[in-house]
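Why predict the complex rather than its parts? Because the way molecules touch one another can change local conformation, and only a joint prediction can capture that. The input here totals 810 residues.
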Amino acid sequence: MNRRQSLKTLGLSALSVGTLLEACQPTDTKSKTGAAGSADGGTGSGESGAGQNEAAPTVPGREAWEVKRDQQLMKDKFFTEAEMATITVLVDIIIPKDDHSGSASQAGVPAYIEFVAKDEPDNQIPLRGGLRWLDVQCLDSFGQPFVHCTSAQQIALIDQIAYPDKADPAMQQGVAFFSRMRNLTASGFYTTQMGVDDLGYAGNHPGKWDGVPADVLQQYGVENVKV
Amino acid sequence: MANDPLQIKKTPTVYDVIIVGSGAGGGMAGYVLANAGVKVLMLEAGPFFDPAKDSMQLKWPWDSPRRGAGTNRFFGDFDAAYGGWTIDGEPYTQKGNSNFQWFRSRMLGGRTNHWGRISLRFGPNDFKPKRHDGVSDDWPITYDEVKPYYDKVDRLIGVYGTVENIENEPDGIFLPPPKPRLHELFIKQAGDKVGVKVLPGRGSVLTEALPGNKDRNACFYCGQCGRSCKIYGDFSSSSCLVIPALKTGRLEVVPNAMVREVLTDQEGLATGVSYVNKQDMQEYQVKGKIVILAAGACESARLMLNSKSKRYPNGLGNSSGVLGKYLHDSTGTSSSGILPHLADRKRYNEDGVGSVHIYAPWLKDNSKLDFPRGYHIEFGGGMNMPGAGYGGYVPRVNGLIPGKDGKMKPAGGYGASLKEDYRRFYGATVGMAGRGVALARETNYCEIDPNTVDKFGIPVLRFNYKWGREEILQAKHQQETFAEMLHAMGAIMLHGNAGADTDYGLDAPGWIIHEVGTARMGDDPKKSVLNKWNQAHDCKNLFLVDGASFVQQGDKNPTWTILALSMRTAEYILSQKQKLNIG
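Output of the joint prediction:
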């Protein structure tokens, strides 16, 4: 929780402000085992250096291997620049800017997809192969890879793979690819601040739950339902 | 240091009590004994964990590069569980086509840091099931014997609920329950239609300040108990038992201590334990007058089976041969649907508590059914915080429910229209899950794999578990009931109605993380490992206070009973202080 959220909290919460603020401070991990009252002498606090020891967590609430793995994933690169360009066009076709919020690429969805491809490697072949499938289709139909096609050409192709129940069976691989891209795009978009605001999720801060608002009870005719 | 020959480091201190494990059972025993002035050493296989500092509470999905997906941690990046179904270097194996799934949290407080906080007492019939319906075995104790401890646990830890006067669903000393959310009112209506009684939930979350407790704050309704609570508003063994017990000065905790075996002397009494410290990889031995195992039903059985000696050739406390047997986990199936009339619903914060606001206990008459016992139902749904995978159902349901203009369109799509649908169907889903009785069977067990050790050289567990006809028929009933309720609500089913090909959607054993029964209690030392005080028949200064002692699970989650029985055992130990030569 950052400071802005902490302060947002204060106006809404009846709980002990001190406790919460303290709980939000970054912690000194060295004090962790000290506070534990770990056993005296030889039982617990032996020196490390055996080379095969398990490192203590360095980020509060995270295991050391998680931190290491995530750092490595961030460093690695999976998609080529050309592939990323195609992904960027695709995600904005799936979630464009509208009156409520910006587009998927404005929300950083391509970078999220790059991360997921490394974090969940089962995505790698379907995504890489699907992007190539798309380009080959476009070359056949329009003489250009996807990103160099006109918008009208791009949409003409997407229309053939965006509706699973209507699609030509010959396009089934494209349908599977597009469904995967669509799900990844939604996953990446609605888990950003922009996407959460777009959906109107109103929680994740301290407050008091006092039941369904009266106007909503009335709207659904459940004023008299008691559990 | 690195080149020194391996040696065993021994500590001269003789502790009154050594406790292995810091979850619900170990935490409670440590809390009671340390507060009574007993000198206690607690060994925990994982690192120290204090929810006040380590909880991921109130983080946003974008605080995780995978947006909280379950790649590193099965239940997601924010879930308060170090470990999971698999732990690097600590395998377990299966016999034949057994597929038992074993969830381990290696951290102070164990699995209580992330559990669902659903806190149900076992009822009179749950303790005497055979007397009630002739199936499986009775516990050597009655509900009336355990009731005073349930009462004390309620007062010590706090639980919300309502007094209902249902015989096999005993009432507790309750804080007020959270009010129902909108979809929960629909579930209540549906229950009324199809004959499923829906009640306010029962959970260990402080909906009000807990009388007499200044260390914990009342819930602030973020709905994130699974991340553990920074203000100790819910029950975790770490926050509510171990950390308070440390303040007595009578409890010491050694984190990262992976216990190898229980040490015994020539008389067969426990003298302490040996462990490997996972941080320095050195071997240690510590001495205690009493050893209490609370490593989890399977891990405690593993420890005893691995504690072999001339006197205990089949493992410590296993003269009956029962150790490891009667392993059973709750049954589980689930279904979900979308409520078309909740499309484009009004937005407001309905996070509520992170445990259940409502639930449905088992009240049906089994004499009219083709399986014994039953299950309770837990419900989900509503306007949750979006996480990884959000909206996966939308490109499917947008072809099933007319748009705002009243027109149907094909499923799938893209662009402004699809974006509108992601908003339109947000918060419109409901889910339900059954958690039911599996029978304790001698033929379902864990044992030591003769061929495999973990990275510490400790022989690992091999599982053999097969669901019986009773569990499969119960799963069928669950699926039928959920479909009926979803239909009564006007929902379009997203998943459920599983068929015989999948055993009606019955989850793999272990999946519900309610595994118990591996060292069951009983009056007959030939048929049980522990007596009714959780004391080993074969070894009077060895006790087990986790789910291992359960004779037969009920249609309730096990934690509240583990807590009550652990408290009961700790008080028994105090009453036997002289005999057991402690304190």
